[in-house]
Predict the 3D structure of the following.
Amino acid sequence: MLSKKMIASESVKLFNKHGLNNVGVRDISKHLNISPGNLSYHFPKKENLIIFISEQLMKLNSEAFGVYRKIENPSLFEFLKLIKQLHLNFYVFRGVVQDFAEVSRIFERENYRYEEVEKQRELIYLDLLSCLEKTGELNLSGDDMKFLISSIKFFTRFWIVEAFVSFKGKSKLETVGYYLKMFCKQLSLFASSKGNKSIEKFLSTELQRM
């Protein structure tokens, strides 16, 4: 019998190719050459499958944050490498995250407490950006911190939605690279001279490594 992870992995491929709402349980069963009953053994509803896939993405993102936290005195270069990994994770799961509104409705219907995950992520960004400010990589004043956190959350969540329209059929390198450049441009507005050197280092060394 196929494992939950194998079913989820193949389902992600279908969602990436056809879109979340264009792939049903029967399509997944046919693709895997199993009966709908066998699929429902692991995932009684499509919603359960989508939540499982979303949790896999959250786990990968949490692992990326964990790797970053192990770095002593990180610069904006390391922070941007973290953002790059988050972008790559979203790209892998693009068929699901591109339909954020539908996924949010599924979370709500299934009583999944996603708002707690969002609140925790906001606190993490506050901690990371505060450290970068203390090390002289960022210049933040007044409401800059709150604005920057909101901007990062918005950008990292919705760039993939815009990419579906503007970069359909383009390569991962071209697509992710473009939005990382946009992110760097935004971040440079709050970076010190030291921080901008870190951004330049990232742009010159990391965009071809995907």
Remarks:
- The mean pLDDT is 93.
- The two ends are 33 Å apart (CA to CA).
- The chain has eleven helices and no strands.
